[in-house]
Write a structure and sequence with these properties.
The chain has 443 residues and is mostly helical. It has two domains: 194 residues, Growth Hormone, Chain: A; 176 residues, MFS general substrate transporter like domains (Growth Hormone, Chain: A). It has 16 helices and no strands.
């Protein structure tokens, strides 16, 4: 598709929405701020979707805990191949998942994927009970789960605009879904530690399989009345050439949208810095600089996670007119918080710095999600989401690979500071680049 026609497609989409969305400007500022998460849950279909994803997110963490432990018990250090297989499968299938999420009925896709994941994961506790669970079974299931997740996630994200309808409700829905993932990440390890006292570890996999079944049922009961399969405007081509053509359209849409192009490319750098500074750097900082154990590391992560959830709730209900300004300020806050952390190796100040850094995450994530959902035509949403995930995952993997040699070459505080400066540089550059950007038309 030629670039002018792609740009025209974006303009036409925006024009069609403007007439219905312009009424939103009549709402008072107070009314906008009163859009709470409870308003999302008053809509039956959104409440069903949210509830199922809460259980599914927790089931996924139970799955990770159980699979890693079982793999290590079965194969020792070689058990790491299971996680590598899932990550590699998700990475390889990522872009294809977006293509087919835009071609197929998204409701049907989500239901079928959940059923297949339930079947694949549900086999593992049965094999474990009979003592026939081997490493290659775990690897095979990891490949299946990783590949299917690469199809489910774009279909879910691309469905949210049609399910929410109203842009204010969509922003609150995005925030609620994101809060769900953050809470599941924070609560699941503690809950798993309690559950293991009552059920065998292998049945953590049973819980994950059941969560997939619940997710499939919830999606089924939402019904088919929503635009689960938007009209692409013309028949899609089949075969490899059709897939390449679809991906080329996604690249053209991103290339023709300066804000989205800048943000997507910067996400690769941001995830590189995040993996190196937080995932690897913070535990090293707790151990080598603070001279403390895993308890202190847990406090730092807990401070980040708690305030991160609160920030998500607040940002979800703000009236964000200057998207790029909000996103770039978020980058500055994250980077500044980490810089303050390594500059003040005193635990109370470290916890305060970690909490400060966490405020910036939702400031970048929520406006970015809204930008994709509102500015990209519906039948291209899955591909653009997959493109974003491919860039982000590549940056994250590079950060993990670079962290080890760099922290051997320089001190841990200096390494974290260098990676934190990447946040700051991107934030400042973005503020300068888009200082004259007009407010978003949908708010």
């Amino acid at each position: 598709m030629a670039l002018p026609s792609v740009l025209g497609q974006i303009r036409n989409t925006a024009d069609r929405r403007t007439s219905s969305l312009s009424l939103l400007t009549s709402y008072s500022h107070i009314e906008r701020l009163n859009m709470l998460f409870l308003n999302v849950l008053r809509h039956r279909h959104l409440a069903l979707l949210w509830g199922s994803q809460v259980l599914s997110a927790m089931g996924d963490y139970f799955y990770q805990i159980a699979v890693v432990w079982i793999a290590v018990k079965v194969a020792g250090s070689s058990g790491s191949i299971v996680i590598a297989a899932e990550v590699g499968s998700a990475f390889c299938c990522g872009l294809l998942g977006g293509v087919y999420a835009d071609r197929w009925n998204r409701r049907t896709t989500m239901i079928v994927v959940d059923l297949l994941r339930a079947l694949a994961v549900g086999m593992l506790p049965w094999l474990a009970q009979w003592g026939t669970l081997q490493l290659w079974y775990l690897v095979l299931v990891a490949i299946v789960v990783g590949g299917l997740s690469a199809l489910f996630n774009p279909a879910l994200q691309a469905s949210l605009p049609a399910l929410a309808g109203d842009p204010r409700l969509l922003q609150a829905t995005n925030g609620l879904m994101d809060t769900t993932r953050r809470l599941a990440r924070a609560l699941s390890p503690s809950l798993a530690g309690l559950l293991v006292l009552f059920i065998p570890l292998a049945h953590f996999l049973t819980l994950d399989a059941v969560s997939f079944l619940i997710s499939a049922l919830a999606t089924f009961f939402i019904g088919s009345a929503f635009a689960w399969q938007p009209d692409p405007g013309k028949p899609t081509r089949l075969g490899v050439s059709g897939i390449i053509g679809d991906l080329a359209q996604a690249f053209s849409l991103v290339r023709g949208h300066p804000e989205l192009r800048w943000t997507l490319l910067s996400m690769g750098i941001i995830n590189l810095a995040w993996s190196a500074a937080f995932v690897i750097g913070v535990p090293l900082f707790a151990d080598q600089v603070l001279k403390s154990g895993v308890g202190t590391y847990g406090l730092i992560v807990g401070a980040y996670g708690t305030v991160n959830v609160l920030s998500n709730v607040v940002v979800s209900h703000l009236v964000i007119k200057r998207r790029m300004r909000t996103m770039m300020l978020g980058k500055l806050i994250v980077g500044g918080g980490f810089l303050l952390m390594v500059a003040t190796p005193y635990l109370p100040l470290v916890l305060l710095s970690s909490a400060l850094a966490s405020i910036g995450g939702p400031m970048g994530d929520i406006p970015y999600t809204m930008m994709i959902q509102m500015d990209i035509p519906s039948h291209h949403l899955g591909k653009v989401y997959s493109l974003d995930q491919a860039v982000s995952n590549t940056g994250g993997m590079l950060g993990l690979l670079l962290a080890a040699p760099l922290y051997q070459w320089m001190s841990v505080p200096l390494g974290i500071a260098c990676f934190s400066l990447l946040f700051v540089v991107i934030g400042i550059a973005g503020l300068l680049r888009f200082r004259a950007t007009k407010p978003a038309i949908y708010l």
